[in-house]
């Protein structure tokens, strides 16, 4: 009988995964164990994901970064997605999500799980939907068992966490309709479930069968990632009745998962004005009993397609500073197309910048030291050290090399008039005179 | 006898520039006039900058964006800088600063002023320094009159605002040395002045001759932009004794400028941890009597060379939400090289994103409506409207066109499984049934 990380922690057992996380994050192992037992830290490590390097998500740990990859009906080939997986890992992602909706979803997932040393998340309803359309003619013809079978299959394959939209209940949809909304439902999983519920006039099977799903999660130690199906898709919908009604549901579902010994994270918005982000983070932490918070963005404006990795990094920094534990990247292709390799790299690096800017504030061990070492390298005009310390050494090197003669101490912006050189000369000299 | 905008406002006169600003920003003309009179809004419009479209900077107005351009000793040709000027204006900058330190600084400035319809700022000490090195052999051999003559020359040419580092006094330098600092002085102007003061054992001539400088500013209505010569160059130096000591000086200099009828802005940091940004903005507003605040970044981490347009956009949003009125762009080339054309465009767009995200929070007229119109276009899957509303339509169009067959309603990320299409179908249908 396997135990989840949470069950092990509650039994006083220190797992190998806990040891690695505690060592890498410089956290006392007993503090970590306590937090895993209480659920404020999740270690997403499916017992069947054999080559996984374990990471923890939550209280006191560094902010984690996820990259979404996977095929789509327009780009169904799995090969390029493995390339993106490798790019995401090389750029420093702690996790990828396989969002495949192409022809052969099983094959994509197997390939990604086989190659991934980082956490792998899935969204089972995507595969269930694609299968229902193929085999039954429409998303609304999907059966409850279709859904459960897909969850079990993906769990058995080794998915470390799963986005499951259990909180989209009929009362949430009714509240959305009563209060009105500009963009209605923009989450894909949320839209499938909403369509299904409205057509079938039945409540959400992911909610009704929650205990069965928890049994599957417990069996393989899949971390439940409670999806926010009603997340706001534009600033004007942020922090509205539908979103908060669903969040109340999610808070209740967190407790039920913990009661079953299942690890759980909660997913969050979306598109949110900058001044509402802190409130959203604090509300989630309060209503969801300090469960780890996994956020997409938030995007702080709707008007920047092509630059949404940046609108998300702005919101993501604010979110992580105020309690978000895990940032899902957004790429420059968001709202426009499936990301390509460059988009994946840009998305990961920019999200790591947001995570790191927040980790400095959170006091995560090592975060401030990294910046201080860069400052010292700059003061010494030690370019090699600067390049090595850069969050993306390749890009920094290329940009410098492209526009500076080799061996110069300054850069081509200041040229002969480098502030650091001048001050080192005169301030250094004066200090010697003292 | 010409009047500055401030003198005119105080005399109850409504200038043409005030009319344009009030109309474009949807601000009551008398409110605007009052704020110009009080100094909380500056309209940077040199009487000799003939083709200028006037902009206001400050209380209740949209957050402005500046692009730094200009030659360097490594790239002394003025032609490419005019190209950058045009790129910056096309991308939506409200202002450029000519930071030229190349061979022929007069020629660069004349060309930029001639072509620029947006505000032009300069940093006279750059030219004074380059001239001193050429004519006298070292920056420390510069005379006070060299400095004053350069200021007068650039004012007469039409510079709308000037960065002048009047606040770097000997007590500020002494405080820096007593308290210690990792990066000392990273502002170029600050470093020239510091080197000069230490070598000559004299106080800052820009401080000592402040009244003479104000006379020049009053004559041409140059807005004084009080430079922060001791701005922190790394997170570890942020909000330290040297920075705040200089800020105290700047607050005193603001009042002296206003007493003389000279418009004034104050420049701010720099490299600042995310959680210290709000404090910095509020401290400046309090110590500088609500004078408009013009900030560089702030950069929220030191470790991202190649991505500093993004570290600055994160900090810039937080800064503008908390009171900054004017954001100086940072480009991807920061800390590495002189920016090229693409860097200039990226820098302006990303800084406009930060400014706009803040303007939504500030309640600037029209800001929220822009986002709402985008939300409506997305809901209707109206791609042409989405492209037109994008902050950078060209980039959005290119990204979409590169990876989507023409005429598709969805995008290649979701393909056949578009959330918006599904919800429009089922939620729309159900609402009709009601």
Brief overview:
The structure is a homodimer of 434-residue chains. Chain A is built from 19 helices and 10 strands. Chain A has helices at 5-10, 16-25, 29-38, 79-91, 105-115, 124-136, 144-157, 170-179, 188-200, 205-208, 210-220, 241-259, 277-287, 308-321, 341-362, 367-379, 383-389, 393-402, 419-433; strands at 41-43, 56-58, 64-69, 95-98, 119-122, 161-164, 223-226, 264-268, 293-296, 326-328.
Q: Would you identify the CATH H-level superfamily of the largest domain in chain A? A: Radical SAM ThiC family, central domain
Distance N to C terminus of chain A: 73 Å
Q: Major sheet of chain A, described briefly?
A: 8 strands, parallel, barrel
Q: Biggest sheet of chain A: strands side by side, in what order? A: 3-4-5-6-7-8-9-10
Series of H and E elements of chain A: HHHEEEHEHEHHEHHHHEHEHEHEHHHHH
CATH class division of the largest domain in chain A: Alpha Beta
Shape of chain A: globular
Strand content of chain A: 5-15%
Here the CATH topology of the largest domain in chain A equals TIM Barrel
**Strand tally of chain A, please?**
10
**Helix amount of chain A:** 40-55%
- Provide a count of the helices of chain A: 19
Task: Please report the two chains with the greatest interface, counting residues with C-beta closer than 8 angstroms to the partner's C-beta.
Answer: A-B, 109 and 109 residues
The total domain count of chain A is 2
Residue-averaged pLDDT of chain A, rounded?
94
**Radius of gyration of chain A (Å):** 23 Å
Low-confidence spans of chain A: 429-434
Structural class of chain A: alpha/beta
